[in-house]
Specification:
The chain is an alpha+beta fold and about 325 residues long. It has 2 domains: about 160 residues, Glucose Permease (Domain IIA) (Distorted Sandwich), CATH 2.70.70; about 150 residues, Glucose Permease (Domain IIA). It contains 3 helices and 24 strands. The strands form 5 sheets. Strands 1, 2, 4, 5, 6, 8, 10 and 11 form an 8-stranded antiparallel beta sheet that branches.
């Protein structure tokens, strides 16, 4: 149970922080010409989340109202999206910067500000340097996101959600996001139509078959990477399969390569040659091991290896990839 008794000092600090976070409601949405579809990480280089979003059930209860990102004192802190600075100063002994993006506001602490209230900033602009004070002193950046009085997960701005991201951004940003999403969908559809012109026609062995049983856990397309924590293309299809499940050739072909890759783990490339005038190659990733080597000619259904969890993997599965004339395509168009 949380006590209702509070000292006057704590009450004043809470009120001061609340005023800072709500004082930007009428600010313009973004710097002119800067209307990102989502946002970006507020730190440079590879970003590591060391404490996730865990808001309290009630606004006055204890909780973690943002995310903590690993960083050291003096590291540059960047605006996650374009907007106007609505607060830049010290609260409760630590530097705080608040940037208003229209419908939502981002907060950064502890930060020694390099901007002033009223400044317009663009996505990626340096707004300060990591300072000291607060629970994140000298070891991390506490990054927050608010819509009115509601705390939101700031990872939504870097791909931690799908349609939710659009609702968090100002109207002009959402319009740009929808346009870009439509463009990506159109490009994917064009690629799949190109693939469909040959996959609907069986090759000499009777067409392609799924290399493992099991459902799909992650399809081909854009997603928030579960290991790297970045919004990027998921360049294949993940099939749920336990470690040790046999991986079988989906169609006749020649093993082009067997190797180890830091991200893909143990991987195998299978060249199927020309199918209806297009060069087709499939790739198999994260295996425990393979039982065939480069140059081996395989038949459809022949054992290639066994499912594993090598490389950047969060569990046993098969990551299947497809190339058509050297370009990546959705593997599910084969089946």
């Amino acid at each position: 149970m949380v006590s209702d008794v509070r000292t006057p000092q704590i009450t004043l600090l809470v009120l001061a922080l609340a005023l800072a976070l709500t004082g930007a409601a009428s600010s313009p949405a973004a710097a002119d010409g800067d209307v990102p579809a989502t946002g970006q990480w507020p730190l440079t280089g590879r970003v590591r989340v060391i404490s996730g979003f865990s808001p309290p059930a009630q606004r006055w209860n204890a909780g973690h109202r943002g995310v903590d990102l690993a960083a050291r004192t003096g590291a540059p802190v960047l605006a996650a999206a374009g907007g106007r600075v609505s607060f830049a100063g010290r609260l409760a002994g630590r530097g705080v910067v608040v940037v208003d993006h229209g419908q939502v506001r981002t907060t950064y602490e502890p930060v020694d500000p390099l901007v002033a209230v009223g400044d317009r900033v663009r996505t990626g602009a340096v707004i300060g340097r990591l300072g000291s004070g607060g629970h994140c002193s000298q070891r991390c950046l506490h990054w927050g996101l608010k819509e009115a009085d509601h705390y939101l997960n700031p990872l939504l701005l870097v791909g931690g959600g799908d349609d939710t991201v659009l609702r968090l951004l100002a109207a002009d940003q959402a319009a740009v996001a929808r346009k870009r999403t439509a463009q990506r969908a159109a490009e994917t559809a064009r690629a799949e139509r190109r693939v469909a012109t040959f996959v609907s026609l069986p090759n000499e062995a009777g067409g392609f078959a799924r290399p493992v049983p099991g459902g799909i856990t992650s399809p081909f397309g854009m997603r928030f990477h579960p290991v790297l924590h970045v919004w990027k293309l998921h360049d294949g299809t993940d099939f749920a399969a336990g470690c040790g499940t046999p991986i079988r050739a989906p169609a006749p072909g020649r093993v082009a390569a067997v190797s180890y890759n830091r991200g893909y783990g143990n991987r195998l490339m299978l060249d199927h040659g020309s199918v209806r005038g297009r060069q087709i190659r499939t790739g198999f990733n994260h295996a425990t091991r393979y039982v065939v080597g480069p140059g081996t000619l395989v038949k459809q259904g022949q054992l290639l290896g066994y499912v594993g969890s090598t490389g950047y993997s969060t569990g046993c599965h098969l990551h299947l990839m497809l190339w058509v004339n050297g370009g990546l395509a959705n593997p599910m168009t084969l089946f």
